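Quick check before the chapter quiz. The format below is the same one you will see on the exam, so make sure you can read both the input and the output lines.
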Amino acid sequence: MCFTQVSREGRSLTETLKPRMHQMVDSFFNKHQYQPEGQEQEQVALLQLEADFDEALLDAAMDLHDQNSNQDSSPLLPEVRQELRSRVRRSSVLSLEDQSPEGCSPKESFCKRALRSFQMLLCCLWQKWQAVLAWLKKSLVAGMQALCRAVEAIWSVFNDFCSSMTQVLRSTIPA
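Here is the expected output.
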C-alpha cells in the first residue's frame, strides 16, 4: 500500500515523504562519511536517523488521516495522537549490544558499515511500526466494539420507547 493520497500542498504523500527521507540519508552520509571510525558515534547518528524517519512517517500518517477524516472518518482524539506518538518514540530497538564484534571489521569501509547499519535500522523501524500498527488495530477494534455497544443500547432504548408509545396509542384509540 503506497501513499497515493494527495497531501495538503497538492502533492502525493510519496512525492513529499520520499525526498524528505532521501535528504535524511544524504545528511547522515555527509556528516559521517569522513569522520574517524567510532561505533558509538555512528550508533548515535543512526538513532538520530531513526528518530527522524519516525517523525517523517508519523507526520505522513497524521496528514493522511487528517485528509481522510474530512471525508469519511472522525479526527483522532488528542489522547490517541499522543499515545501513537509515544509508542513510535519509545526506546529504539537499535543498541550497541545488537552489533556483534565479529560483524565489525576494522578494515570494513564506511559504506559497508553504513549499509549494514542502515539495513539493521530498516529492520528495527519495520518492527516498531508493526507493533504500532498492531496496537492501533487493537485500539480500533476496542473502540468499534464500544461504539457498537453504545448504538445497541440507544437502539434498545429507542425500541422500548416505540413499544411503549405503541401500547399508549392502542389504549387511547378506540377499537
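If your answer matched, good. The first helix runs from residue 13 to 32.
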